[in-house]
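Ligand-bound model needed. pyridoxal-5'-phosphate.
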Amino acid sequence: MIHRTDPALQALSWQRQLADAISDPAELLRYLEIDKHLLPATAASQQKFSLRVPRWFAGRMEKGNPNDPLLRQVLPLQEESISKAGFVLDPVSDLTQSPVPGLLHKYRGRALLIATGACGINCRYCFRRHYPYADATAGREGLSAAVAYLEQAADISEVILSGGDPLMLPDHRLAELTYRLEAIPHIRRLRIHTRLPVVLPDRVTPELIDLLAATRMQPIVVLHANHSRELCHEHRLTIAPLRESGVTLLNQSVLLKGVNDDARILCELSEKLFSLGVLPYYLHQLDRVAGAAHFEVTDAVALDLHRKMRASLPGYLVPRLVREEAGAASKIPLG
Ligand SMILES: *Cc1c(COP(=O)(O)O)cnc(C)c1O
Ligand code: SF4
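Prediction:
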């Protein structure tokens, strides 16, 4: 039995915890003992893309600190209404590279399946903030078309489950999906991109671990942690069993001004990840989505941070610094 720090949370399933997520900025600020003067500014942004944060993740935030890097990632702020040239509604325009609804085949050998549009947390810098990805998912009905496409695309050896967050699906739905995919002989790897195990460790259920341990495909889980403080002892208890079951664990981060634009924090994150058996994979420049301009770090600063990481860490702890460009054959390395 995994020991939980908060017995009240321990009693709830991950689904109940998600349903119980904080969605009222006033409640979050009250809980964090932060002065309400921040509130009028949050109201307008909140209406466009609401606050959503699991209580477990809120529990990782520092009380009384309005600049807490975890809080900054989820609290709607006035700055979001500032428009800036180049920051658009659909920065990556992925949907044009979709052969069937919910499936993106953009890069050779890999296809990305939007397993669900839902997410367990609303990150302010997310490209989802303007797009009803729920309309473009390979849900139950769409799945057959996606599977048919994958069956005839013999060059695809890896399927990436993305979203939203694919781990929003209950385990039995993930199992269904996995069985459909592993029946296609040329699919060798199953990759899951998810933030849920970071912001809600209880999502890593024994059923999920068993599913990934048992599949014929090689399982890869790409976590999404941006700051060393997002990771703690509970992740050791939930993430380590994944690794022990043969899952390759990677992490991707987004470079965010006021959150992790600091070489010391990024190095700490890499060290912490490795201590959990996770390798840093990508450090992304922000997708230029409208409302997120205040998070942008210039390329010059990003390159300087990356140089400092290289100067302090073994090569395997330095993530690749990349950006996503519409129409490119891969993520584009900076510099
Ligand atoms: C990022 C991405 C991938 C995966 O790229 P890797 O470089 O293999 O991590 C695949 N498909 C799409 C559409 C993507 O955006
Ligand atoms: S977890 Fe990922 S997909 Fe979900 S809101 Fe955050 S950045 Fe967006």
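The CA atoms of residues 255 and 261 lie 6 Å apart.
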